[in-house]
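Sorry to interrupt, but I need a hand with the structure work. I would like you to pick a protein and set down its sequence and fold. Please put the record directly below this note.
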Amino acid sequence: MNAHRQAHTSDSLAFFTQKESLHAYPVHSHARFYVFARVDRGSIACFGKPGASPLPGNTASAGDLIVINPEQAHSGYPADGKPYSYRALYINRNYLALLFGRQTPPHFSPSIIRAYKGQGEFDTCFRNPQADEHIPFFQTGRTEDSPEEPLLLFLSHLLDLGLFEEGETSPGDMAHCVKYIKAHTGEKLTLDRMARDCAMSKFHLVRRFTAETGITPLHFHTQERISQAKALLKSGRDIADVALVLGFYDQSHFQNIFKSFTGLTPRQYLKGQHQ
């Protein structure tokens, strides 16, 4: 059986997909990276020496999530002699500290989360997770959603599970954040700028904003831009002009985003208004 391996890396993040493998990884550790691995098929012995009979508590099966801290010794080999498949997300410890707005990175409770219920959050870190090719979110070419938002939502879910201490948080006024976003509908906002101007880390901005509004801050920003676009189109403004005023890259980009939110192109929307 031929195993399929695929890796995508950057200085801050690395993604790895292993399919139908019988490979036995020796005991090792990663000095700079956290590892979050979701088992898609089979069973993996995560700790102990390859060849030894794995302890039940050290085996992850399909649907489980493996959480490993930097410098934590671990292995990886078939627990039952059968092929296994998994997807792994590696996060640089310094990058994670930056996302959290902390001097030092958090320490996760190393564990195997059985039948992980947050697979939706994990899967958003990959495009089309059911397809043969798993592409990390930072290579999908998305233009309206920050590539960091899926990652921050995933980490937020781990915090909800009690896997790490949140640490000190800045107060952060969500009402102020909402007003701030509405006041900048004509601009291309980034998470970095929002977090800076709202005086909180990117992690806490996405976590708290999503908890209070039900959607991420950048999604809310795009929603406000589309709402304003409708008003401008109704007032008689030209489609190309609306795209320019609201800070879209070009008319084509505006039309694609508008349709994704409304199910109609701007021209179809205008036609419906006049019927």
